[in-house]
Amino acid sequence: MPDPPSSPKSPSNQPSNPTQIASPPLAHPTPPQPAQILTFIIRPSARIEDARTSDGEPWTQALDIIREWPGFRALYWGRRVEIEDEEKVQVVVFRDKISQHHAFLPSGRWVSLQQLLEPLYPSSPTQKDRPQRMG
Description:
Elements (H helix, E strand, L loop, with lengths): L34 E7 L14 H13 L3 E8 L8 E8 L2 H7 L3 H10 L14 E3 L1
Antiparallel strand pairs: 1-3, 1-4, 2-3
Helix pairs in contact: 1-3
């Protein structure tokens, strides 16, 4: 019985699946950093992007509270673009240790942050409109 036809071998640096993109190895891999995603319900009309506005000032102060907590590495935030989620603002925070994220949420600083942002919440806040955490 003849041998079955063999498929051409791809070089080891090529992906085996043509839809995959090969990624070069990193010269200096980044160590993993725990991330926390905070979701706030903020009025779509609130101009939090400009720190000089009456809405932007408390938003900037709230971000400063997050930055000042121990282990802070980086922070990224943005509004959701979907119409049904236009009130959602998500903040991704990186810290040295997951325990630093866990310690922040029951702290008095977290309570202060929520109180600071209350004027930015929709006019009739309900329990679902309170800040949420993911991850």
